[in-house]
Amino acid sequence: MAIDIFEFAGEFLTETDKEVFKAAGWGRRAGFGNRPAILIVDVNYNFCGDRPEPILESIKRWRYSCGGVAWDRSIPAIIKILKSAREKRLPIIYTTNPRRKDGFDLGIWTLKSHRSEDQVDVQGHIGNEIVKEIAPEDSDLFIEKRKPSAFFGTPLMSHLSMMKADSLIIVGSTTSGCVRASAVDALSYDIKVTIPHEGVFDRGEASHKLALFDLQMKYVDVTDLDEVLDYLKKLPTGLFDEDFPPSAQAAKD
């Protein structure tokens, strides 16, 4: 079911905030699309750490880590979405973001952290690998990105156009960073987006909840895992078989 976003983020909103958004008419439900792809944003060891543990412990070794919330809440939710999506043979798209060893392609992002010299970010490091619990399969699409949005400087929109996908279900990290940037860019391309709140995670609770509040108000639909799973269950199997060759191959296998 759709969540009450005002209650969900209520501890971080003033009463005036709530009144303003309601009076302005924001937050209407846009609805699911007819041909969804699944976009899994940066669920790698950099952002999850390599095991469930408190975030302050995890970031000692993985400076980007969101800690236990990734393992306790979001990865289990993503596993359920993946199971349903694979049964329907929907396109599944993963992103990660390896950097050159000299950090050049990180650009000015290096200016925002005192630990930008940490080696967890460079090409060939395990930090850039998708966690094995949800590792990509041969039929999945894989995109390396260099900036927050999965669309910026990547072939993602070309892939969606070729597959005739009209919508995305986005999960991953971080809610306020790469997930938000990808969702807003999707809107700019007139791609509908649904985000199950359990499937996204951040290193801060305020940034997580307020990012979802803002996204629900102005850009996309924020809902819960059960509603997404129910929607996927009702989709016809093999919807993309003619337009996404790996999907058709999976049916033969």
TrEMBL record:
Q: Any idea which UniProt keywords this protein has?
A: Hydrolase
What GO molecular functions are on record for this protein? hydrolase activity
Q: Which Pfam families does the entry link to?
A: Isochorismatase
Record-linked InterPro entries? Isochorismatase-like_dom, Isochorismatase-like_hydrls, Isochorismatase-like_sf
Which residues are in the Isochorismatase-like domain? 37-226
Instruction: Provide the protein name.
Output: Isochorismatase-like domain-containing protein
